[in-house]
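Question thread 4412

I'm putting together a teaching handout and wanted feedback from people who do this every day. The idea is simple: show students a protein as raw sequence, then show them the structure tokens that encode its fold, then repeat with a second protein so they can compare. Below is the first pair exactly as I plan to print it.
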Amino acid sequence: MKYTNGFLLRATAALLLASGFLAAQDVQPDNTKMNKGDGNKTAVTADKQKMNANDRKLTQQLRKAVMEDKGLSTYAHNVKIVSENGMVTLRGPVRSEDEKKNIESKAIGITGDSGKVDDQLSVMANK
């Protein structure tokens, strides 16, 4: 009987899964519905990020502050941060109102002005 490499890989994976060595992965966050709004011509998206030094620095500082906060969820670590002419837009889902306030507070601290932060974050219910 001749086996192909694909067959052997599938058989090995099935054996490992059945024996408990390979755990089924949790469902990953799916932001497909949220991202459909990015097709709107007026939506603030990463491709509209200005390439001037000040806007890049704002985005970089805020992304670093968000990523260093290990108390935030994966959703919060993946929010969209877009800077345009000193104005920072925050978009995407977070897990709680506290996370939303936390990220907005970081943005205000970095920009120095709450009027320069457009908080479009949304709180997603835990499943």
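The second pair follows. I'd like the answer to focus on this one:
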Amino acid sequence: MMNNKLYKGSLQTIILQMLNEENRMYGYQMTQRAKELTKDSLVMTEGALYPTLHKMEEDGILTTSSEIVNGRARKYYSITQKGKNVLDEKLDELKIFLENMQNMINLKPA
């Protein structure tokens, strides 16, 4: 299993990308989708996920709606236009980061 510390700095990007693809999701659904996409390598803990979601909502990059499912309230998160703009910026940054990492691990002698 991969060290989750490698994912920590990308949690917001991961959430935004999932919401951009799925339109709306609730927290547990996000954790399960992340595990599925990474073949169980990424385990999002509630302690990391929910504070990030709340901060993103506070920053206006996510909106929420509630729905009663099986007699219980379920909070759904959706990406806003501001969130889509943030996602575009973060994906550009991630692309540059990955290119730089690729260059660093493929060092050639001078």
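Top answer:
Good format. For the second protein you could add a caption like this: The helical segments are 5-8, 11-22, 27-37, 46-58, 81-105. The CA atoms of residues 67 and 73 lie 6 Å apart.
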